[in-house]
Every structure is written in C-alpha cells, then in structure tokens.
User: Which sequence fits this backbone?
DNA sequence: TTCTTTTTTCTATAGTTGTAGAACCATAGG
DNA sequence: CCTATGGTTCTACAACTATAGAAAAAAGAA
C-alpha cells in the first residue's frame, strides 16, 4: 500500500487555496493552474478530487457559507433575543480581514449564481436559513419585551438581511465610508431604531 | 461623401446591446462576437467605436450609473426632505424589469471592480454622490422637523445605502422573499423607524 | 457612371483555458 | 529488495477569446 491521503482534508486544502487566489486576484484570475500552484501542486493534481472546475468552485462557495454559518451559531449559542440578533449580524459584517476576504469571494459567487441554477439554489437556501434565524431572534426579543414596533418581523428581517448583504459590497468597494466601526454603528443604529419604534 | 453615422449614438446602441446580453446570459456570455451580433453587426464592427472590450464595458457600466442618477434627480426634482429621500431610494430599488436588469448588470460590475482600479473608482464616485444626496435630504428633513433621532446622518445614510445595495442582490437572487412590494415595505419600515426614533 | 471616403465584413493570429490521459514517482507490504 | 497501487506531473489538445488588419461594400458627390 502506497502513500494514502485524506481526500476530504485535501479537498478543504484545495478550497482554501482557491479562496486565497480569488481574494487576491479575483475570480477571473482563478485558473486551475494557478489554484493548483497555490496549493503546491501541478495542474492535473486537482482532478482526482474535483473532476471539473465547476465542482471545485461549487464546493468552495458552499464551504464559505458553512464557515459563516458555523461562526454565527457559535456566536449566538449562549444568547437570545436582541443580543443574539446583534451577535448574529455582527458575524456576517465584513469587520476583519477574514470576513473581508469572504466578501471578496461572495461577490463573484453572486455573479456566478445569476446564470447558474445550482449556485442560485445554494444561495437561496443559505439566505433562507439566515433569514429564519433572524426571525426567530426577533420573536424571542418580542417575547422578552425588548421589541414593541408593530412592523412585521418579516420586513424587519428583510431589512437586516439587505443591510448585511449591502455591507459586503460597500465594505470592499467603499472602505473609507464603511470602515468596520462605521458598519457596526450602522447596525447598532438599525437595532436601536427597531427597539425604539412603537 | 458616403454614409456617415452618429458615433455617440452608435456607442449608446452598442451599450444597450451589451446590457441585453449581460442581463440575459451574464457577463461571461458577453463576448465581443455576441454583443456585435445582438447589435446587428459582425465581429469587427465594434472596434471603431470601442477599441477594446474593456472600453466597451467601462462605458456600459458608467452608462448604467448615469441612467440611474438621471432617474433619481428627476424623481426628486419637486420634493424635499423625507419625501425626496423616499423617492430617491425607490428609484434605486429593483422594482420593475428595467431596474431588475440593472441589478443583473451591476452585480457583474462589482465583481469586475474588485480587481480593476478604474471601475472601483467609478463605483466609489457614484456611491459618494448618492450618499451625499441622501445626507442632504436627511438634513432637509431635520430642518423641516420630520426627523428627531439623535443618530448621526452619516450612519443613517450608510444604513440606507447598504439597504438599497443589498436589495440589488436579494431582488435578483431571492425574488420570492424580496418581491417589489416587500422591498418597498422594507424601505418604508426603515424610513418609519428613522422618523419615529428620538 | 465613377470616384472617394466611411463603414462593415471577413479571415487570421496569438494567447489562454479546461480537460484528458499517458508517463512517472513514491510508498507500504511481502 | 521488490512490487503493486495510489498519487502526481507533464504534455497535448481542442475550444474559445480578443484583437488586428486586409478586403469588400455602401453611398453620396462630381
């Protein structure tokens, strides 16, 4: 029996190399050759793990969502209501280098999803999950009396979703007006308005 | 003297063909050949008007912003304060087919701007202009007593900007939860919260 | 008609990309 | 030490792209 590698682990390594390339040179610079080189391999070494480039990209994108989702559930595990809501949204906002890189990966993903049904489906399901969690926390907040606005939770959730998704764009393309502290200020402004409303 | 064409007009025609292609098949399907065919020409006919593909795309993208900006100033010409603010934002929200197409063009543009300094600059200046106009309307609203929240205008403007930019994404990729009336409801919820806050 | 100038088409080219697959390598068991 | 087998490299190829530029076409002026 010769050298044997953990295929799942290798797949993750390759995906991380893909992320680095996309974050650094954009999706157009993410050729199979460059990704392989970034991971320390030659061109054809990716094929056993990802038969086609689309397989690699699809896995890379879905891995971003699982990573973000995992962070979000960790951040809210010992909270509820408004506190959970804030922690949840903070975990999506591009406040540090890692999450700014994620934004640089998600934007090309949106562009791909525009003409790729499978990626659109992946996006839809991830967004639905986030949205439902936000709604849950809003209801907790209402139950705890933290929230008295008559505006429906669905609209508030949509508002927050659009806010954090818009932040992915502005944090990367207008970093001066949307520095981390500004983004947090915007989120807190939004949450304060929601709790004040009656 | 032979047939002579209006170069500026032709450039706009070509840009509109480009938009149609991008909206229909995505930016990856927008090859010079396909764009030329969509405009009713053969491959090389574009060169006199746009020497390179990047020239064409840059002009196409900047044209989207001027079109949107023109619509926005038209919609606010006889309003001020909160009314102007609402009309202004409504003009960005992807509420009809035209503006949904614009969203399908802007998303690839963001992706290009990630690795193209000229396009990033174009985006930054357009966003700064929108942002300043929103701030102006917020100040008008304050002066008219429509607004009493102590939250700074900059944060409110950033909030609204992120909201409408996020709507570009969700309207296209999660149309069910972000149908036109839902988006308007979200905007109105946000505006109502802003005016209620104190 | 014929000429002149603008516009358009068409063909060619150089470069890049994803993918395939043969050749090569490395390693653990006998 | 040998060998079977999973892993890796390398070369090749076919498709596609943007771009260049020569050739053709069109259309008003003389």
Assistant:
């Amino acid at each position: 029996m010769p050298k044997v590698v953990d295929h799942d682990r290798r797949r993750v390594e390759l995906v991380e190399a893909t992320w680095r390339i996309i974050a650094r040179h954009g999706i157009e610079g993410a050729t199979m050759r460059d990704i392989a080189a970034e991971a320390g391999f030659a061109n054809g070494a990716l094929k056993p793990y990802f038969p086609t480039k689309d397989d690699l990209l699809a896995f890379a994108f879905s891995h971003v969502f699982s990573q973000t989702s995992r962070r979000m559930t960790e951040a809210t595990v010992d909270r509820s209501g408004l506190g959970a809501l804030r922690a949840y949204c903070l975990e999506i906002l591009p406040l540090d280098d890692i999450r700014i890189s994620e934004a640089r990966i998600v934007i090309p993903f949106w562009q791909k999803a525009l003409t790729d049904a499978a990626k659109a489906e992946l996006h839809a399901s991830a967004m639905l999950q986030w949205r439902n969690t936000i709604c849950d926390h809003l209801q907790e907040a209402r139950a705890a009396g933290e929230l008295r606005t008559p505006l429906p939770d669905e609209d508030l959730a949509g508002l927050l979703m659009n806010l954090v998704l818009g932040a992915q764009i502005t944090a990367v393309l207008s970093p001066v007006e949307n520095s981390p502290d500004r983004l947090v200020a915007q989120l807190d402004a939004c949450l304060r308005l929601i709790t004040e409303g009656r």
